[in-house]
Design brief:
Blueprint (H helix, E strand, L loop, with lengths): L8 H8 L24 E8 L6 H9 L17 E7 L2 E7 L10 H14 L4 E7 L5 H7 L8 E6 L10 H11 L4 E4 L5 H12 L19 H17 L8 E10 L7 E10 L2 H8 L4 H18 L2 E10 L7 H6 L4
Parallel strand pairs: 1-3, 1-4, 4-5, 5-6, 8-9
Antiparallel strand pairs: 2-3, 7-8
Bound molecules: guanosine-5'-diphosphate (GDP) and magnesium ion.
The site of guanosine-5'-diphosphate (GDP) has 21 residues, from helix 2.
Length: about 325
């Protein structure tokens, strides 16, 4: 007989970790523009985890706008992307990282792994993201990169996909043995209240220091970079799992032109670089249909993002074997 039934096992688990489950869920996302720099808090928070656990979704939700791209396909976030949120006296500088790649060992993957390593050094807080109730070798590989010196929260994401919350309590206990996590945050990046709660928890770890960025800044990434990321998101969205993640997007031209009819007008020319002729055909689609859809969706999104009229020209090129060629990887902008 189950005599020790507990209707809220998660709260019991969080209490064991000294986390107040009743933390204020409301946040009002307004910076205090009059905040005296002497009262400002500012810190860098790295979001790490294996591919597909929801890091980019989480960062988008935290920052409240689409900064980092999300996709069903793993590995779409290659660069380190910064999202900035200023609220009250607090400025959060979130760093999203590519999933730590364990399957392949080409030059590109070495570059990805270096980006992850760079992101976890020199930060004030690490959010280690896993899928609630799960942990495998890929998660472990990322966990091994974390140093005990920096406080780390265990973000157990996709809580909505967990059938029985009771199962999480024993899982949590094994997780506590793996690493000295400062706090345990079961949540869904897709639930607003959860994201607000996580934000409140993060706020406690921000050091007292003046803000790094202006209060209205959302990202330290250039518009050119955002253009490439947006095209890449649409590329993967419309090719599904068919296209290898080594396909990339290079911006050949990004020019703002004066216009009588529009506040801003931007002309962008981009090349989708794929590895094989077959991939090129896949991207172009039947009578160019797919490429057209990729272009249209990317353009519409960029127009919203830049608040501008955008002309977007897309090309597809085959650049066989580039993922294994270290020099070429560098020339595409990966360090
Ligand atoms: P990343 O590779 O870690 O950056 O993961 P993404 O943010 O790209 O998300 C991978 C997939 O998980 C996407 O399809 C998301 O919509 C989905 N996802 C992210 N967070 C949640 C969540 O809280 N619940 C559910 N059910 N799905 C989520
Ligand atoms: Mg991502």
């Amino acid at each position: 007989m189950n005599t020790k039934q507990n209707p809220e096992p998660i709260h019991e688990a969080t209490a064991a970790l000294n986390l107040d489950p009743q933390v204020d869920l409301t946040t009002d996302l307004v910076p205090d523009l009059d905040a005296d720099p002497a009262t400002q808090h500012c810190g860098t928070i790295a979001i790490v985890g294996k591919p597909n656990v929801g890091k980019s979704t989480l960062m988008n939700a935290l920052v409240g706008q689409k900064i980092s791209i999300t996709s069903r396909k793993a590995q779409t976030t290659r660069h380190r992307i910064t999202g900035i949120l200023t609220e009250g006296v607090n400025q959060f500088v979130f760093v999203d990282t590519p999933g730590f790649q364990t399957r392949h060992n080409a030059a590109l993957n070495k570059s990805l792994n270096k980006t992850v390593l760079g992101a976890v050094e020199d930060v004030d807080l690490v959010l280690f993201v896993v899928e609630a109730g799960r942990f495998n070798d890929a998660d472990d590989t990322v966990l091994k990169l974390l140093k005990p010196g920096v406080p780390c929260l265990l973000v157990a994401n996709k809580l909505d996909e967990v059938n029985s919350r009771a199962e999480l309590a024993p899982w949590l206990q094994t997780m506590q043995k793996r690493f000295p996590f400062a706090e345990f945050v079961p949540m869904s990046a897709t639930h607003k209240a959860d994201v607000g709660r996580l934000l409140n928890i993060c706020a406690k770890y921000l050091p007292l220091q003046p803000w790094f960025y202006p209060a209205d800044e959302l990202t330290d990434r250039s518009e050119k970079f955002m253009a490439a990321e947006t095209v890449r998101e649409k590329l993967f969205r419309f090719t599904g799992d068919e296209l290898p993640y080594t396909s990339t997007v290079v911006i050949d031209k990004f020019e703002e032109e004066p216009s009588k009819n529009f506040k801003r007008m931007i002309r962008i020319s981009a090349t989708i670089v794929v590895e094989r002729d077959g991939h090129k055909a896949m991207v172009i689609g039947d009578k160019g249909d797919r490429l057209k859809r990729i272009g249209t969706e990317a353009r519409q999104e960029l127009e919203k993002l830049f608040d501008a009229k955008v002309f977007l020209e897309l090309w597809v090129k085959v650049r066989s074997g580039w993922a294994d060629d270290e020099a070429r990887v560098r020339s595409f902008g990966y360090e």
